[in-house]
Specification:
Low-confidence stretches: none
Number of helices: 16
Strand order of the largest sheet: 1-2-3
Helix content: 40-55%
Shape: elongated
Keywords: DNA recombination, DNA-binding
Pfam families: Phage_integrase (PF00589)
Mean pLDDT: 86
Number of strands: 10
Distance between the termini: 103 Å
CATH topology of the largest domain: hpI Integrase, Chain A
InterPro entries: DNA_brk_join_enz, Integrase-like_cat_sf, Integrase_catalytic, Integrase_recombinase_N, Tyrosine_recombinase_XerCD
CATH class of the largest domain: Mainly Alpha
Domain Tyr recombinase: 189-406
Largest sheet: 3 strands, antiparallel
Order of helices and strands: EHHEEHHHHHHHHEEEEEHHEEHHHH
CATH architecture of the largest domain: Orthogonal Bundle
Strand content: 5-15%
Organism: Streptomyces flavovirens
Radius of gyration: 34 Å
């Protein structure tokens, strides 16, 4: 074993010092005269060998500080817990460039959400900061006062936390500043704001909708499927003889570009949906219109849509998109006298009610009113949690209020007490 150096830590020579060693290193003839002194004022350098073979030499004002640091680092090297401070001194921008290619994201929508959180929130705030300079209090203040909305706070914090966890595992930082960060509570909404359109209201909307989109809306109302599920429905997955639809893939909007996605929203999304006579008639109308191919093309990377297989398409035979459909949906709900602007308290944005997605809520409410068990509703709707169906879709309307009122009025009569 190599012998340990006896001059470690060592004192560095100082141009402004007048001790004997410093005058010899920096002669007065070249560096100017200095007052003679016995003790050197130079800093102390602690040298050590890192596990990768490098030899750093940080400096300290006193011998005691340098010696303490040297003993601490030697212990960390022996125990395998040493972290090079320079590894944590890179900027968050540089760390993101290293970390992001290692992230495995199978869903395009999830990938786009993370990219949006990075470009809109994380990068502008922390991109130029060094990894090891970010503190817990700074992150908490940012989440509380600069990031708006419960859902946005959760998504943004999730991304930054994953980046910091990776930096911690890579031994670039010693503490994750995103641990135990509190986000604002989700805003409460009055039940009246969550009630979906009734059957009568849906009929009224269809009366003012253009004829071409009538089958699409009827099919959505009668099946409770998601937008991407029925716009991505292919003839090979539609069976009019058994009156069923197999949900096997979806169409998604990848930053303005329509793509095929191999799986629905979750594993529970793979399901068979029964068709009512009205849904079958709507599907048959589109089959007669476009005569889609019954082949089952491979999805591949999602680039080739194979529009010729789609049951529901746009008027120009292309894939249906939300922006194009909204140009017909908004005028229809306005003409029906149902449209109202609803403000999202989290984002501050406003949108029209009802949305076409609210037809899914209407469908779930119909199942509840028909007495379909919750677990069966869960299967048909394609949800992994039955409880979510209860609180999100099965809204309590005026019927429940009247039922409770009737139960109270017909309940125990009042008695006069003497």
């Amino acid at each position: 074993m190599a012998r340990r150096a006896t001059n470690n830590p060592r004192q560095l020579r100082e141009k402004g010092c007048g001790c004997k060693e410093c005058i010899e290193e920096y002669p007065p003839e070249k560096y100017g005269a200095r007052k003679s002194r016995r003790d050197c004022i130079g800093s102390w350098q602690a040298r050590y060998r890192t596990p990768d073979g490098k030899q750093p030499g940080p400096t300290f004002p006193t011998y005691t500080e340098a010696k303490a640091h040297l003993d601490k680092v030697r212990t960390q090297v022996r125990e395998g817990t040493y972290q090079d401070p320079k590894r944590g001194a890179i900027t968050v921008d540089d760390w993101y460039a290293i970390w992001w290619p290692t992230v495995k994201v199978t869903s395009i929508t999830t990938k786009n959400r993370k990219l949006s959180a990075w470009t809109v929130h994380v990068q502008p705030k922390w991109g130029k900061r060094k990894l090891n300079s970010i503190t817990w209090m700074q992150v908490q203040d940012w989440i509380t006062n600069e990031v708006r909305g419960h859902a946005t706070q959760k998504k943004v914090l999730e991304l930054l936390r994953h980046m910091m966890v990776a930096a911690l595992r890579d031994r670039r930082i010693s503490v994750n500043p995103c641990i135990d960060i509190e986000v604002s509570p989700a805003p409460a909404r009055h039940p009246d704001e969550m009630i979906p359109p009734t059957a009568a209201q849906c009929d009224l909307i269809r009366e003012h909708l253009t004829d071409y989109y009538m089958p699409l809306v009827v099919f959505a109302e009668e099946t409770g499927m998601r937008w991407g599920e029925y716009t991505g429905l292919r003839a090979c997955n539609l069976n009019l003889e058994s009156a069923t639809v197999k949900v096997k893939e979806v169409l998604i909007d990848d930053r303005g570009k329509i793509r095929r996605k191999m799986a629905p929203k979750s594993r529970a999304g793979f399901r068979t949906v029964p068709l009512t006579p009205a849904a079958m008639a709507a599907a048959q109308a589109m089959l007669d219109k476009w005569a889609p191919a019954t082949t089952e093309s491979p999805i591949g990377d999602g680039e080739d849509l194979h529009v010729e297989e789609l049951v529901f398409r746009g008027p120009q035979s292309g894939p249906l998109t939300r922006p194009n459909f909204r140009r017909h949906w908004i005028p229809a709900i306005k003409a029906a006298g149902l449209a109202r602007l609803v403000k999202n308290e989290e984002s501050g944005r406003t949108e029209f009610w009802p949305r076409v997605h609210d037809l899914r809520h209407t469908f779930a409410t119909r199942l509840k009113d028909a007495g379909v068990p919750e677990k069966d509703v869960q299967v048909i709707m394609g949800h992994e949690r039955g409880g979510r169906v209860t609180w999100l879709y099965q809204h309590a309307g005026t019927e429940l209020v009247e039922e409770v009122r009737a139960a109270l009025v017909k309940g125990r009569p009042l008695r006069a007490v003497s």
